[in-house]
Amino acid sequence: MEIDPSRRNKKPRHLLESERERLDEFIDSIHYSARYSDDQFEYRHVQLPKNMLKKIPADYFDASKGTLKLLWEEEWRALGITQSLGWEHYEVHEPEPHILLFKYAITHQMTMQVLTSLYRRPLNYQPAIPQ
Asked: Which positions ≥6 away from 112 have C-beta within 8 Å?
């Protein structure tokens, strides 16, 4: 399930301060689904308030589909969506364009868990010496 780069802006389009201010009123109304998964990815969908779509700049939209483009992380964070690092916007639910679909690679999650456990060891940690 690869991301089609033609469905994104060529590079992240940052919001102007005035654009961001228009979206502030909606941030507390963004709904995050429970997570669900398969053997490769963890998924969740994020439901934006329908009225919020009217305040998002036009160049965030795919005119041919009438939905938001696939957003870079900088773009969806600028809209007020908050998630941990590693989530990727991979699809928009076209019948309900205010619903954005995200995925998170399970291998990324396992790597982060291993790294986190390594950093939790005491600074004076010495591995066991084989006998």
From this structure: 86
